[in-house]
Design goal:
The protein is α+β, with helices and mostly antiparallel strands. The chain contains 16 helices and 18 strands.
Length: 461
C-alpha cells in the first residue's frame, strides 16, 4: 500500500516537469487480455505509467490530467453481469482514499474527452484505448484521434520515466517487502534442492515460499537452470533433474504492490563447490562485490559495467581461460564470450525499469555493450541490479567466426572441456544512498561459506 501523500507528491512533481500550459494527458492502464476458451483473462499487469501516477492497478481504467482541472481517475463500476461472474470490483470512494485522487465512473471519460475536442491530447500508458475505445466506454474515438499529439506524448512519457528513476519511501518500502519475500524463496531453494529433484520442482518450492511471504506474483518468469541449462540466460525450468557435481542457477524475484525484486543465486547440488566451480564462483562474487562497493551518487553505471568486464577478463586470464591484458581483452569484447549481458538494470514497477538510459544516450551495438540496459550517472533513490555472470554458452563458444576472431585470446581446448559447465550469476537489488549502497536483497546468502553450510545441511538430510 502506497501513502496517498507520496502519490500526490509524485503527481505534483510530474505535473511540474510536464509544464503544460494547455492540452491534456490521458493515461489508460490497459484492458484485461482474454484467455481463449475460458471466459477468463490473463493475469492483469497495469501499465507502469498508470500505476506510478495513480497507485492503482485495476483493469480498464484511465487517469487523466488537465493543467486547469488537475488529475482525475476514471474507474469502472461493475455491472450486474460482472458482479455475478467476477465480483463487485473496487469501491470508488475507497479508491479515492487510497490514491488521493478524484475518482469518477469510467462512463464519464467520454464527456471528459468531448470537452477537449480540438485540443491537444497526449496519450501515455497503454494505447489499447485506440483499438478498443468502447471497452473504456468511449464512442467516437476516431473523431478525437487527430488531436493526439505523438511528439507531446513522447515528451511526457520520457519525463515520467525520468521521474520513476528516484524511488520515494512508499516505493522503497514495497521493494524491501519484495526483496524479503524473495529471500524466503531463495533460502527455501538452498535448503530443499537435492539430487534427483527437477528444475520445475525447485521452482514450485521457491515460488510457494515467495507467496507465503507476501508476494502477489513473481516479477518475471522464474529462471531455474541446472548443469548446462544454467548457460541459457532466461532459461524456463524443465523436468531435467539436478545432478550431483553440477551447479544450479536460480534467477527469480517476488513482486509486491506492483514492485519487482530480481535476485540470482547459484549453488552446488552437492555440499560443496568443486574445482573450477569454486574458482569461477569466487570470481563472480568478487566482481559483484567490487561493483556494489563502487556505487555512490555520480558514478556512471556504464563504468561499473566496464570495470566488471575488466575484472572478469582478468580473473579468466588468471585461470588460464583467456590470454592477454585485461584492458585489451575488454577493448576487443573478448569478455563478452563469457559475460554477454549488461551488469544490470534499473528496477521498480518493471523488472527492467524505465529510464535506464539518459536522454540522448543510445545503446551501443558493440558485442560487449549492446545488452547494457542502464547508462546514466547514479543518484540517491535509484534502485539498480548488479548481476555479473560467467557462462559457457555453446551458441557463442562454438561459433566458427568468433573462434577465428579470438583465436589468440582464448584457450579453446580448455573451453571445449567446459562446454557443459552451465553458468554462474549472482544478482542483488541495490538502492543508491547519499553515501553509497543499501543492498535490499543483501540478507540472501551468497558467500561460499554460507552457501556451503546450507548445502551441507540439505545434503545430510
Ligand atoms: N532477471 C532477469 C533479467 O534481469 O533479465
Ligand atoms: Mn536482472
Amino acid at each position: 500500500m502506497q501513502s496517498p501523500d507520496d502519490l500526490r507528491n509524485r503527481r505534483e512533481a510530474v505535473a511540474r516537469l510536464w509544464d503544460m500550459s494547455r492540452g491534456a494527458a490521458l493515461i489508460p492502464g490497459g484492458l484485461p487480455v482474454p484467455v481463449a476458451g475460458t471466459d477468463q483473462y490473463h493475469d492483469f499487469h497495469a501499465h507502469p505509467e498508470f500505476t506510478y501516477l495513480s497507485g492503482a492497478r485495476l483493469a480498464g481504467s484511465a487517469l487523466a490530467f488537465d493543467p486547469g482541472d488537475g488529475w482525475v481517475l476514471f474507474a469502472p463500476v461493475a455491472g450486474i453481469e460482472e458482479r455475478v461472474w467476477v465480483g463487485d470490483g473496487e469501491d470508488l470512494e475507497a479508491l479515492a482514499a487510497s490514491t488521493g485522487l478524484r475518482v469518477r465512473p469510467l462512463a464519464e471519460l467520454q464527456s471528459w474527452l468531448e470537452r477537449r475536442r480540438g485540443e491537444t491530447v497526449a496519450l501515455l500508458g497503454n494505447d489499447d484505448i485506440t483499438h478498443h475505445p468502447a471497452a473504456y466506454g468511449v464512442e467516437g474515438w476516431t473523431a478525437l484521434e487527430p488531436d493526439v499529439d505523438a511528439e507531446l506524448s513522447a515528451r511526457l512519457s520520457e519525463q515520467v520515466s525520468e521521474s520513476r528513476r528516484t524511488k520515494d519511501s512508499s516505493e522503497i518500502a514495497l521493494m524491501r517487502s519484495a526483496a524479503g519475500a524473495s529471500r524466503a524463496g531463495h533460502l527455501a531453494a538452498l535448503r530443499l534442492a537435492r539430487t534427483g529433484m527437477s528444475e520445475r520442482q525447485l521452482q514450485i518450492e521457491l515460488e510457494a515460499e515467495f507467496f507465503r511471504n507476501g508476494a502477489e506474483r513473481t516479477a518475471y518468469g522464474s529462471i531455474v537452470g541446472t548443469g548446462s541449462n544454467g548457460a541459457v540466460l532466461h532459461f524456463s525450468p524443465t523436468s531435467r533433474a539436478l545432478r550431483d557435481g553440477e551447479v544450479v542457477l536460480i534467477d527469480a524475484g517476488a513482486e509486491v504492490g506492483g514492485y519487482a525484486s530480481d535476485v540470482t543465486r547459484t549453488f552446488p547440488v552437492g555440499p560443496r563447490f568443486e574445482g573450477i566451480q569454486r574458482d569461477l564462483y569466487q570470481l563472480v562474487l568478487d566482481v559483484q562485490q567490487a561493483a556494489i562497493g563502487e556505487i555512490r551518487p555520480g558514478v556512471e553505471y556504464k563504468d561499473l559495467h566496464l570495470g566488471a568486464a575488466e575484472r572478469i577478463a582478468s580473473g579468466l586470464a588468471d585461470l588460464g581461460i583467456l590470454r592477454g591484458n585485461p584492458a585489451d581483452l575488454v577493448e576487443r569484447d573478448v569478455h563478452a564470450l563469457f559475460f554477454p549481458h549488461g551488469l544490470g538494470h534499473m528496477l521498480g514497477l518493471a523488472t527492467h525499469d524505465a529510464g535506464g538510459c539518459l536522454k540522448g544516450r543510445t545503446p551501443s551495438d558493440r558485442f560487449g555493450l549492446k545488452w547494457l540496459r542502464a547508462d546514466l550517472p547514479l543518484q540517491p533513490g535509484y534502485v539498480v541490479t548488479i548481476e555479473p555472470g560467467i557462462y559457457f554458452i555453446r551458441a557463442l563458444l562454438t561459433d566458427s567466426g568468433r573462434r577465428e576472431q579470438y583465436r589468440d585470446a582464448v584457450d579453446w581446448e580448455r573451453v571445449d572441456r567446459l562446454l557443459d559447465f552451465g553458468g554462474i550469476r549472482i544478482e542483488d537489488d541495490v538502492l543508491v544512498t547519499a553515501t553509497g549502497a543499501d543492498v535490499l536483497s543483501g540478507a540472501i546468502p551468497k558467500s561460499i561459506s554460507d552457501i556451503e553450510a546450507l548445502r551441507a545441511e540439505a545434503n545430510s538430510r
